[in-house]
């Protein structure tokens, strides 16, 4: 590769020069060299690290910075910066050096991590200088604190408030040496005077595993509860002072089992009152990205936005899961439950019975306000496959319809036999059900015969008088491998033929996709999320067995117009709320397993179908 036209030093010599500059850690000089030509850009890139760790003042001071202005090509810094406490004392005097040297210069740090550290008990003026310098690192949007001790809650709050663009806060084993005076009126008053964290939206308390493992540590509980109790206390009005919400902008809160295992109904209610913007609350475990139970409720005035509360059951201890579900039932907080998505556990183990009973109680508690019920038939994701002849028995004790009148029923994880879904539908007693969405596990070619028989029997079940008011039945399935478009169209046409009664009522919709969603087939009545309206597709098979699918006017259906108009309005409203709650998180540019993206329960089916029959 040639650096430029005409005479030049040999490539090997340039490489030695750049290595020497890199060894001096003069990143500004390296960044300027990278702007000379493409060759230099290629050679310098490996020396400009995305992740830097500082464990001493010497490490910070060893980095050379040019006095020249940034406009002429200085380095904009790493994306990830980590401050680690000194080995024995855990002291971090280098945090002040780091902030003063790089504030205003390093403008692309977006994750700051402080770990294994003890924040210095310095004078107020020294702390103020550090926080002032940190406020100039305006690119930081994530703050991670792991095994950090602060001299006071006010110091911790000042650090969080110092970062003007902070959006995400991750706390793991953060302790306070001055916790004895935590609820002192002076402490509360000083905390209320801190600048509000206007951009902070996501808080994670507890462990998020790099390796997908979860370990329950009961002793970690006090580290978090005193912090949560203080946030609740500081949000309460003090005398004639107005109510202050230090984390009032937070809309997503994720708690690890080590935090929530001893929660009470009153502590949950106080937390909801202290976080007025909260939209998503997750009682999670370190290795879980998806909630096994999700409740969506509408709080009373003045809070108008729905709240989604998720409970991750798979690897949490069953007694803790049952306890937190019952706490949600008993909490003194005005929440009208509109939507529940829940895993239906087989009654094969004591642990399953404990959780399933609590879920049944929650559904009964929701009562008539529940209009959208989703059921996942996978059970415990670590179970072995249960024999077909026992597939129906596992759901017969799931009494989910005794006190409810849902208009929408969603059933996920169905197999080709349709045994589980038929058993669930046999418990429906309300004529209010207007739509039934049935999502199958991944379908194989060998399932075609069994699927046809299963759908035919399902078609018969949906002819029962209790389903006379049905307006839409969606059959959704994914194939685990690439499928030609023509083959998928034949599958869809065959499935329609197996459900001839629903097809004649013009309420049937079928949607099939292959593994990568490169091919998609729609047949019958389909809700189109892009246009927020209905589409209809019809199929014909010629004498050679070829299937042709074409779009036809959606208004050809026979459903009563008023009922369909009301159902369409409900679909649009539900889609708007779902889009708002499950907005995609920004992609991490490194360490993707360290930061688990949250997935709402509505997306759980897609996760399971993508990962196979046995669950996530």
Short structural description:
This protein is an alpha/beta fold. 33% of the residues lie in helices and 20% in strands.
Structure description:
This protein is an alpha/beta fold and 616 residues long. The protein contains 19 helices and 20 strands. It has a 20-stranded mixed beta sheet that branches. Strand 15 (435-440), helix 15 (448-461) and strand 16 form a beta-alpha-beta unit. This is F-box domain-containing protein. Residues 555-593 are annotated as: Disordered.
C-alpha end-to-end distance? 48 Å
- Which structural class fits the helix and strand makeup? alpha/beta
Taking pLDDT < 50 over at least 5 consecutive residues as the criterion, the unreliable ranges are: 1-7, 379-392, 581-616
Integer-rounded radius of gyration: 29 Å
How many DSSP-defined strands? 20
Oligomer: single chain
What attributes characterize this protein structure?
616 residues, alpha/beta, Leucine-rich repeat, LRR (right-handed beta-alpha superhelix), 19 helices, F-box domain-containing protein
